[in-house]
Description:
28% helix, 9-stranded mixed beta sheet
Amino acid sequence: MNEFQVNYHFIDVHKGFEHHDKNRSTFPIIYGNYLRSEPGISGRVLDIGCGHSVNQSYKVFADCVGRLDGVDPFPAIAHPQHLASRWSCSLEDIPVSSCTYDMAYSYMVAEHIENIGPFLKKAIEIIKPGAAYWSMSPNAGHPFTWVTRIVQRLGGTSVYRKHVNALANDYPAYYNLSNDAKILKAINDMRLPVSRVDFYYLPMFTGITIFRRSFVQSPILSIELYFCASLKCLSYLSLEYKDLPDWTITYCLRRPVRVETRPHPLADDRIRARTDVRHRRPRRSCSAPNSRRST
Length: 295
């Protein structure tokens, strides 16, 4: 089987609900800084699942990105000005050669990938040796994903797109690529050329407080209000009870090079080995940094 290093990083371990409630927009900034710290950001970069507009992390690294391309199955209404090229297709069908990009990333996209094998294979294939693919998405183990699946089964995403936001995608969420165990298994089973995998967990809070005078008369806005209230409750539980998984999972897959890869410059000393498949947050008494190697 493949041999590659696997590290787990926990961000804001000792922060509680009150902190994250006041800093709800922190996670795209943190993710943007990770992307900004990549050496490949100054070269040719691919935004996987670029959508119609600029994601919230882009402004963090916009001034240092070289050439930015995009790919998304959803046709663009207008060509985004920040992209040099944009393909309306899945990543697996993108018409580029292997080893084309110095870096690739996706922002809240991986949860919509059903078949993770072909996706990961293509993501690794199109980046150069030593380059990295970054992803941020909801953590498959968080209760938020249960709520999402229920809403999805009830047709809530289609209703939201029809009545609230016509530009919102209605792709189903599978959360297969938001699960570290499945990601590591796919890398091993397919023997993908990966030398290092870093998982970053952040107890992000996304509950949005909505105050609209018309929500009583509008069933759609009422649903939106109740949904956001449920997110706030789930956030409180996940932050106050440490046995629940973190909300957000970010990971970096790096292609091997001839020289040994160095630790990520933004990695802190809160790196711990994860031995359970549920990947719970460490207790407050845990402080010893660690990492493990997958074989």
